[in-house]
Amino acid sequence: MSGTKKTVYLGITADIIHPGIINIINEGAKHGELIIGLLTDSAIVSHKRLPYLTYEQRKAVVENIKGVSKVVPQEEWSYVPNLLKYKPDYIIHGDDWKTNYLSKIREDVYAVMKELGGEVIEIPYTQGINSTALAHDATAIGTTPDVRLKSLRRLLAAKPVVRIMEAHSGLSGLIIENASITKDDGIHQFDGMWSSSLTDSTDKGKPDIEAVDLTTRLQSLTDILECTTKPIIYDGDTGGIPEHFVFTVRTLERNGISAVIIEDKVGLKKNSLFGTEVKQELASTEEFCHKIAEGKKAQVTQDFMIIARIEEIIAGRSVDEALDKAFACVKAGADGIMIHSKDKSGMDIKEFCERFRKEYKNIPLVLVPTTYNQFTEKELAAWGANIIIYANHMLRAAYPAMKKCAETILQTERSLEVNDMCMPIKQILELIPGGK
């Protein structure tokens, strides 16, 4: 326990400072020196979305609030590790945790404070303040290109696996932005979006060819950017010639895109998942690395990421050859490696990841487990993966649903039978900011 002056512990996220936060800080300061346990990004993201402000930004704000004695990092969602470390005389919390999702944590806190000989202070939750609603309102307001651009690197630093879902329209982006479920280990949601050239062109009713220029792609991308806030990874196909890729990097970075993935192919584009009969020439290691290096030189910020997609395994080459090219790409400046395969066993991907990790511990590895989808995110993370992309599932799910709806109306000559297939228009309007 503390010496002459009592100490009080208060754990907060402080992404939004509202009257309820000021009230509990004032109450805590009445009982002694107030220690703020400021939750880190990694403590927050398994239970809530990534804070808009970085830890350092939030810390700077909290340190300047009257009544705060010092700010310390809280590295876990649970208060217990910091209570055992700092041994405060009191911990203060709003009484709302008696009935909400923090009730188990409340039980743990009471047990630890009893062991320490301390006391739990519960104060009435400030009425009229709903931090979840405030966060939702902030989402509705939107974000800035700079904040969105930086968020992918922040997520990679905070989470073992970053979960990315394909978006091909503003509405699909809104679904990804808002989708979440609560499980025993916290809230599960998508961390960001994948702007796929395949799904974008298919949604437009056009073939997936690289002749579709960046300007055309930006039309769909802008629709998504305008109504969402989460980071976006852009499918850059081959990136074109180095001079064109430099332009792409600058344009994407300026618009707040977090990363571009380019593949080591040359010539007319053929989709990797078509079949074994489809062959495409791969770029040499030297020319692919040159393109990456030119793209890195074109960046204005350190936050934008260029990720190299290695197609050696799909082209029938060995894991050794894929690793050699991946290592060369990292040395050329690639911020991450995406490895692709059509092998349903996934064992070639596992071998690649495990061997890559022996050479590079911290370079992000990106997997797209479309063919080897029997593996969970935790299993893929155990191989060494950092980013999991669900590359085309939103479009693939939408097509059969729309087709069935259309055919049912043709069959019955009315829409009664499709009622259960269709979402009420009111719910769709509620999803759209300002659409109510």
Give a brief outline of the structure.
The chain is an alpha/beta fold. The chain has helices at residues 19-29, 41-44, 55-63, 80-86, 103-116, 131-141, 145-158, 170-178, 197-203, 214-227, 242-254, 285-298, 319-332, 347-359, 377-383, 393-412, 425-431, and strands at residues 7-12, 33-39, 68-74, 90-94, 119-123, 162-166, 180-183, 186-189, 192-195, 232-235, 259-263, 305-310, 336-339, 365-367, 387-390.
Overview of the molecule:
The protein is of the alpha/beta class. Helices cover 43% and strands 17% of the residues. It has 17 helices and 15 strands. The strands form 3 sheets. An 8-stranded parallel β-barrel has the order 6-9-10-11-12-13-14-15, surrounded by 8 helices. A 5-stranded parallel β-sheet has the order 3-2-1-4-5, sandwiched between helices. Strand 11, helix 12 (285-298) and strand 12 (305-310) form a beta-alpha-beta unit. Helix 13 (319-332) packs across helix 14 (347-359). It is globular. The termini are far apart. The relative contact order is 0.09.
Task: Tell me the major beta sheet.
Answer: 8 strands, parallel, barrel
Number of strands: 15
Structural class by sheet pairing and helices: alpha/beta
The residue fraction in helices comes out at: 40-55%
What is the CA-atom radius of gyration, in angstroms? 25 Å
* Overall pLDDT level: 90
Figure out the total of helices: 17
Please state how the strands of the largest beta sheet are arranged side by side.
Answer: 6-9-10-11-12-13-14-15
Uncertain ranges: 274-278
What gap, in angstroms, lies between the N and C termini? 54 Å
Strand content: 15-25%
> What is the molecular shape?
globular
